[in-house]
Amino acid sequence: MKSSLTILVPLKGRSHHTAEWIKYNIYDEFEYIFSDGSFDNSNKRVLEKVIDRSNVKYKKFPPDASYYDYYKKMYETTKLIKTDFVMTVDNDDYINPNSLKKMIYYASHYTSFEIFQGVQAHIQKKDDKFKLTEFSNFLNSYEGHSKSDIINNLYLKHYRNLWYSLIKSEKYLDVWKACKDLNFKNIQTQEIFLSLYLFLNNRFKYLPLISYIKTSNIEDNNASKYKNQKYEFKDFESDILLIQKYFRDYSDFDSILFKENFIKYLGNIKTRPNILKQSVSKISKKIFYHFLPFNSFLVYSNIIILIINKFSFRKKLL
Known about the structure:
By secondary structure, the protein is an alpha/beta fold. It has one domain (5-317): Spore Coat Polysaccharide Biosynthesis Protein SpsA, Chain A (Alpha-Beta Complex), CATH 3.90.550.10. Helix content is 46%, strand content 19%. The chain has helices spanning 15-24, 42-47, 67-78, 97-109, 147-154, 169-182, 187-201, 222-227, 237-246, 255-270, 275-288, 294-311, 314-317, and strands spanning 5-11, 31-36, 56-60, 85-88, 115-126, 129-136, 166-168, 204-215, 292-293. α6 (169-182) packs across α7 and α9 runs antiparallel to α10 (255-270). It starts with a strand and ends with a helix.
């Protein structure tokens, strides 16, 4: 029987992460496509350990020498997907297989929705042990709001993304075609556009599950690369104009508000963190969160998120 989900793994170098990734993320229930835009063949050599599996495919693309090369790679890869849904997973992050199977089950029953998303669990990894650090991206705070309210009042003020969701494959193809055609100058605005496009053109369903596991102590990923950069609006102005023009005929999109909200969003990125809040958070994490083997970590974190949802502590963890 054909799997309902393809895991799309974009690659560019960092083959040491790919070697770790395949230890924890390959399951018979899912299809896999590794989309390689590396300048060398190191990822291909690593993937030779799993490439002979019937549910694993590898595609080499021209190197990601520019963002356009990356956008085109993602678009061309999505065209190869045969399953109903797709989920992008970075090669330094992890999936929660039982949650994904439950999400596929829900997707078969909630057919009026094109996007399904749970919660992101953030971890630190040390050798073969995993420690929960926090949860994020609680999309339930958007439920019950109109598209207009989400886009113009919530999206950039209380940022949630659809980057790591289960998405209908044809819808995912549409958004990557738009990204390729628009050819954004900055990857940050491309990421904002991707979720914006998906919110405006689809219906989403939040599920109280851990759907994605994000590694927070990685030094060679985009998040670390951009964390300490100084941002000015002029760096994004041409991209913002592209977004405004693209959505100008959407009744739920207010281009003036979007620009204002983006400038405020940019200001929040530059704002210094609350030191007291961070200190209290660190103390609580030392008490409750510990390094565990992967399967034990999954059990523990799944229990924690069940407690959070049951007793409605979500807002304290946003």
